[in-house]
Structures are given as C-alpha cells and as structure tokens.
Design brief:
Layout: E1 2-5, E2 7-12, E3 17-23, E4 28-33, E5 38-43, E6 48-53, E7 58-63, E8 69-73, E9 76-81, E10 86-91, E11 100-107, E12 113-119, E13 127-132, E14 138-145, E15 148-153, E16 159-164, E17 169-176, E18 181-190, E19 197-203, E20 209-214, E21 218-223, E22 228-234, E23 240-246, E24 252-257, H1 267-272, E25 275-279
Parallel strand pairs: 1-22
Antiparallel strand pairs: 2-25, 3-4, 4-5, 5-6, 7-8, 8-9, 9-10, 11-12, 12-13, 13-14, 15-16, 16-17, 17-18, 19-20, 20-21, 21-22, 23-24, 24-25
Pfam family, one: SGL
Cofactor: Zn(2+)
GO biological process, one term: L-ascorbic acid biosynthetic process
C-alpha cells in the first residue's frame, strides 16, 4: 500500500476545522471552523488566510455562480456576500427541528445543492439529506441519518457516494441528473473498528474515494469496486475531517483537522491539531461544481 505524508500549512482552526473545498476560479481553499462560527478562504500561493465570522455554527461553504458562498448552518441554508460581508438566510427545511444542524453539503454535477444534516447528540437518526433546487425549494432524499458527511460524484456523474458517519460505511447510489433522484442504494466501503470513523470525502479521476478517517489520523484512498484501501495519507494528529483536491491541476490533496480534545493528545499531535494539511498523492481530483442558485 502506498503511504504519503502530509505537510502542515499555517492556517489553523480555533476548534474544529471542516468543509475543505477548492474554489477553482479563485485558486483558493474554502474551509470552515464549525464551532467557532467562521468561514475561511486560504490562498496557498500567497500563504494568506482570510476569515468571515457568521452568527451561528457553519458546516460547509461552497461557491455560487454569482461569486458569493452558499452555507449550511444551524439556522439553515444561507448566502454569504464576501464583498459586503453580509449573510442572508434563505431556507431551512428543518426549522421545526431544534436538535439538528447542517453538517455537510456540496453542489451536484448540475448545480443543485445537496445538504446533509446531523443530530446534536451524534447518535439519534434525526438528520436528513436534502436536495436544494436552484429556486431554493427543498426535497428530502434520505432520512434517519445521524451524521451526514462525505458527498461526491463519480467522474461520469452517474454515481453519488455518501457517508453517515456512525454506520462506518460509504454508500453508493445511482444518480439521475435530470431529476436529482437516487436509487439502488448499496454499500461499497466498510471501515473497520480501530481506523477512526469516516468523515469528509472526495474522489479522483480514476474513480477512487479519498475518505477522512476521524480519529484515525489519515485520509484513506479506497477502491469502491473492491471496497479495499489502496493508499493513505498520514497526518500527525488523529482528528482528520475533510479532504479536497486543489491546486492548478487539482493534484494537491488538502484536508482539514480538528482541535477538539487536543489536551488529551501527545505534544506533537496537539501542536498539529487544527491545521490545514497538503499532500501530493500523484493523482488528479475531479473538478467541483458551483451552486447555480
């Protein structure tokens, strides 16, 4: 098995780094600190990190066609105007639920937003996966979810992969771009005890899945056909949360990490916890899309 080692970059979360997303048009890395209620933009070329505070916990941020960011928060889906530093709350399909928040989301191949929620206790199946159309109408795709996490699509856009972290599984669905519907649910990866729980996820052009293993200190590369780990990127701290491919050729694997419970870590692990990391695994990632609404 190939093993790569990641390089620590200077941006660091105050509490829980998450939501890594490459903004190709700006050549910048979007990431969030969920518990600190912050959205960040990191420019690797200049080694500069900018931060926007938002009024509630934020699980993900992705670019839109208009050049601002679409957010998934505790208060629903919101839009962040980076120029005016203004946030506008748009829709909350879980407004009736007080013990959930949006945790993971991505624009699909056709510009719709797929937004997943989680329960505050991380166990109860109160969360869902929602499809947010460009007109901001919402449709529930999955229910009985504890912690919505990794989302990505195959290079041919025919398959969607999804993680509900406590299940320790990566599941696949046939994806219908015309309707946004999912069918033929099946398990393609099972993460054994002792490797951490599957968290964020991205995909490369060869169809392999790169899965953050929270508590396992790595991003693991899985072949979804065989269900086997074939490569890994090691981090010097256990709380690896979310990977994404970035850089001019989408050949750099960036990932976020958490500082939660860092007082329980060895000194070197505690020093690394919360930082952004980068590695060069020798493969190109699939280009992401922007929200079309």
């Amino acid at each position: 098995m190939k093993t790569h080692h990641a390089t620590m970059l200077h941006p660091r979360a105050k509490q829980h780094g998450e939501g890594a997303c490459w903004w190709a048009a700006r050549r910048q890395l979007i990431w969030v600190d969920i518990l600190a209620c912050e959205v960040h933009l990191y420019d690797p070329a200049q080694d500069e990190d900018r931060m926007w505070s938002v009024p509630c916990q934020v699980g993900f941020a992705h670019p839109t066609e208009t050049g601002d960011l679409i957010l998934g928060t505790r208060e629903g889906i919101a839009r962040l105007d980076l120029r005016g530093n203004e946030i506008t709350f748009l829709v909350d399909p879980e407004a009736h639920l007080k013990d959930t928040r949006f945790n993971e989301g991505k624009p699909g191949p056709d510009g719709r937003l797929f937004a997943g929620s989680m329960s505050d206790d991380k166990v109860s199946p109160l969360g869902s996966l929602w499809l947010i159309e460009k007109d901001l109408s919402a449709r529930q795709l999955l229910d009985n979810v504890a912690i919505s996490n990794g989302l990505c699509w195959s290079h041919d856009e025919q398959t969607m992969y999804y993680i509900d972290s406590p299940t320790r599984r990566v599941e696949a669905f046939d994806y219908d771009a015309a309707t946004g519907s999912l069918k033929n649910r099946r398990t393609v990866v099972e993460v054994p005890d002792g490797l951490g729980k599957p968290d964020g996820m991205t995909i490369d052009v060869e169809g392999n899945l790169w899965v953050a293993l929270y508590g396992g200190g790595m991003v693991a590369c899985y072949d979804p056909i065989k269900g086997k780990m074939i490569e890994r990127v090691l981090a010097p701290c256990p709380g690896v949360t979310c990977p994404t491919f970035g850089g001019p050729g989408l050949e750099t694997l960036y990932f976020t990490t958490s500082r939660l419970n860092s007082e329980q870590l060895a000194p070197k692990e505690a020093t690394a916890a919360g930082h952004i990391f980068a590695a060069e695994p020798g493969v190109q990632g699939c280009r992401g899309t922007v929200f079309g609404g």
